[in-house]
Here is the input.
Amino acid sequence: MSIRFKLILQCLTGLLVWAASCMMGALALATERTLPIGVAEFPPFKYTSPEGKIVGSDTEIVEQVFKRMGYTPSIQMQPWKRVQYSAERGEFAAIYTFTKTPEREKLYFFSDPINIVRDVFFKQKGAALSWQTLDDLKTFRVGVSAGYAYAPIFKYAIERNKFAAVVDEYQAPPELGNLRKLKAGITDVFICEVSVCQYFIQTHAPEFSNLDYIDKSIGDARTFHVGFPKSWVGSEQLAKDFNAELAKFVQQGHRAKIFKKYHIANELTR
Here is the structure.
């Protein structure tokens, strides 16, 4: 083997090693910048499209803010109970979107508000129901979605056994199961976020054409947030960085455009 050929071979070998090193470095960097994120069905805020893509108003906000931060969000759709369990085990860098409670603040750092939700009671159209206080519903069977954090006034009513029965729904999405129980007469009313159940009624027409809702909020409207599990290393700083980018995102009018796309109107619209 000539000296010239040896030099060429050494150069080629060096180039291959360098290329492999660059590829491994790029792969490691990509992995470092990919964030596993958990979510549960809750349309129109977050849901799976007919094409199998995870979409919704809150999904678009969360995805775009993380991308502006330089991250690639890897979003996984699971039942809400499993999302929380996985997050608390350190398997997710963030989960979205849900209400803030003192119990949850022990486990998560929270983003600034992403959206606002308002709960009402859904019922059969033929039932002339109204209420002023939850005591008015003491003979009712009430459908609820397992694991959801409802307004304190409603949680208090459940703890004090104010209703004839409370029927939990665990299947995903629980709203759909609850609407079917309501239609079948298994429950008398079902507490649901107004935009969410209206979405299911519209997209499953005419299945739920006999259902409507009582236009009276159960407790105050509540803000929806991204939660950053304290079990994830660096979650506090990640939450701070997210909030800083979210503020710019909102100020530039991007959230308002997303709200308009999904027909969402609340006091956060700007």
The first strand starts at residue 34 and ends at 39. The radius of gyration is 24 Å. Residues 15-31 have pLDDT under 50 and may be disordered. Residues 40 and 80 are 5 Å apart (CA to CA).
